Amino acid sequence: MNGPVETLLKRLIFFEKTQPTAVYIQIAQQIINAIQRGYLIEGTVLPGTRKFGELLSINRNTAVAVYEELASQGWVDIVPNKGTFVLLPEKRTATIKATTHGIDHVRDYPKKAGFPFQSSINLASTQEFSNCTYSVNDGQPDLRLHPTHQFSRWYSASMKRTGLISKWNRAGEPSYNFGKYLSNYLNATRGFHITPNNIMSTRSTEMSLYIVSQLLIKPNDIVLVADLSHFESNMIFQQAGATVKTIPVDAHGINVDFIKTHFTKGNIRCVYVCAHRHYPTTVTLSAERRLKLLQLAKAYKFAIIEDDYDYDFQFEGSAMQPMASSDAYGMVIYLGKLGQSLFPSFQIGFVVAPEYIINEAKNYLQILDKQGDLIQKQMLSELIAEGEIHRLIKKNSTVYKQRLDYLCDCLKKYFKTKMVWQKPSGGLAIWLHFTPRISLIKLAEKAKHYDLLLPKTILYHDKNTCAIRFGFGHLNEEEIKEVIKKLQQAYNDIVD
């Protein structure tokens, strides 16, 4: 039976005779690795050369060569008639670079905790990983349009601003300065009349919604969402303990009258709505229903969470102003994004709400992200002041409109009457209905055979719906054509 040292050596040493490095060198490097990591401590007696050879199934002469190599480097001391002892040479600071097979498994970190904890069923990841060359998402921008070289210069210039460190050390001042630029920008572009006291910037709209949900929702509070709604938002509400209930949605947005006829005053905590372009169908909440919803919120005393996730990209006509811009009673909490034409690390989320709400929300924010990113905010402030944000949005919107037009042409060519869609006035996704209905799960499975990923999160299939939220923003025209052709091949496979 092997002792502890022999068992350890057998587990961590691995060698290949086909490698150009000699076997005795491979083994010696891995023993050095174990000594450096503390698995073999000073004074440890290594097995004799005969035993060592049998342990690793190597020739005894190879075992002798291993020990001689270790001794020549000062890692072991070979004492005649006594044994081979591990040393820790002085000033031995060489990098641990030996290749090993079992070193990381010698003392495996436990997979299970030794104490109970509460797991969440609401926050399970919805991401799908695939090796497919092509994929469709729910409407994300094309990162290739980001002006990388310009931003590297702008970011570098922001880092070199005098007084940056002193500003960073003065709590509150950096955020307030950025708040002035951001509030001015929103006042000019979205019809607001706000000050920095009405706004809070976050890392993302998901963080914004998480903070708002922690602020508003208590266990079993009723949150109303559209019957087709954003899955990530629903996860956040459920994690906060809310009871999520649905409202019908049609070509004019959510059915506000349904709220009035099915719920009583004081029974609703908040209503979540994407008023500008409903997720996932892309329809706009009509002006009449907006007014009804604002009046109902005041009468029933519930909050409206207005998620304006893709306001920037408007292709036809003028973008409809947010409900929050005409909210005279403080019933609306507005969530938005800044920098969707930029690389993700430069994008931010923000919350617009009455001052008392913002003050309380910032108490939650300082727990999650007290430090923030001053360089990012300073750079964005300058991009707003110089009008660069507006120019980027306008430039990229032109590209996205061309892609949407081309997508509609491809759909007409390859699907004709098999799909029905309404061309959206903006945004980076289109809502595709299949007629007649098909199995979308089978379609996604077949698409993978053609090197195309259709994530389950963009598939909407129930007794009333058979549709895909098809995001096109990340695809250029050549890629759009290829994706639609592959989608047609998968479609033909399941209907033939």
Automatic annotation (TrEMBL):
It comes from Mangrovimonas spongiae. Keywords: Aminotransferase, DNA-binding, Pyridoxal phosphate, Transcription, Transcription regulation, Transferase. Pfam families: Aminotran_1_2 (PF00155), GntR (PF00392). Residues 21-89 form the HTH gntR-type domain. It comes from the Bacteria. Signal peptide: none annotated. In the C-terminal section; belongs to the class-I pyridoxal-phosphate-dependent aminotransferase family. GO terms for molecular function: DNA binding; DNA-binding transcription factor activity; pyridoxal phosphate binding; transaminase activity. This is PLP-dependent aminotransferase family protein.
